[in-house]
From TrEMBL:
It comes from the Bacteria. GO terms for molecular function: hydrolase activity. This is UPF0173 metal-dependent hydrolase BDD43_1531. Belongs to the UPF0173 family. Keywords: Hydrolase. Residues 25-207 form the Metallo-beta-lactamase domain.
Length: 243
């Protein structure tokens, strides 16, 4: 497959630090950093809550994949083919993708970090499972810390509350993107506990409402976060927030 050259190259060096995030449902969101678009865990066409999102309109420069479950990679092939985006993921998923002719892939592993054109990405631990849609083992599930535009953003991926999050305590995170739907991941109460491990008061909640078993009471969630002295953002599908 021929890989296109990306028009963002060099743009991030201009000294303007603009960061925003657009939510596409479940754990899929796009982080835009000085014009560079980074899409996390693409799952849109099979999510009824994202029925108004045109998957073919998404043209990210990077796709970051936390693990192999279908509700995190279902639209990866379509979006990657349309955009030529570099896929960043655990080494086992990188190998699986390469066998399916996705050649613009950067494999990583837990604890490793790499400097990309837009900034630095570190892969961190997540406590979950990871099997690819065809049954292939997907290696370890993961989260990411993105260091760019003067900010530090933690995308936790699908995870239970884990004391490994304490390792991020000194990072001075600006935002944490946390699953709050319970059943498969942390719920609201554990997500609040997690913020105490890594000392971040600004949270974007993800991985909720897409299926009956992860339906949440949004008002209850907001009240609990407010009482804990935290800011919780629950953007609508398609909504953009400035970070």
């Amino acid at each position: 497959m021929q890989i296109k050259s990306h028009p963002y190259r060099g743009r991030f060096r201009g000294g303007f630090n603009i960061m925003k995030v657009t939510y596409y449902g479940q754990s899929c969101l796009e982080l835009e950093i000085n014009g560079v678009k980074i899409l996390f865990d693409p799952f849109i066409t099979h999510n009824p809550l994202a029925k108004n999102v045109d998957v073919n309109s998404l043209k990210p420069d990077f796709i970051l994949v936390s693990h192999g479950h279908g509700d995190h990679i279902a639209d990866l092939f379509t979006i990657q083919k349309n955009s030529g985006a570099k896929v960043v993921c655990i080494a086992e998923i990188a190998d699986w993708l390469s066998k399916k002719d996705v050649t613009n892939v950067h494999g990583m592993n837990i604890g490793g970090a790499f400097n990309f054109e837009f900034g630095r990405v570190k892969m961190v631990n997540a406590v979950h499972s990871s099997t690819l849609p065809d049954g292939t083992p997907g290696g370890n599930p993961a989260g990411f810390v993105v260091y760019a535009a003067g900010k530090k953003i933690y995308f936790a991926g699908d995870t239970a509350l884990t004391y490994d999050m304490k390792l991020l305590e000194d990072e001075n995170l600006d935002w944490a993107i946390l699953p709050i739907g319970d059943n498969y991941t942390m719920g609201i109460d554990d997500a609040i506990k997690a913020t105490g491990f890594f000392n971040c008061k600004n949270v974007i909640g993800v991985h909720y409402d897409s299926f009956p078993v992860i339906k949440i009471d949004k008002n209850e969630a907001m009240d609990k976060f407010i009482k804990a002295g935290l800011v919780l953002k629950l953007p609508a599908v398609g909504e953009t927030l400035s970070l």
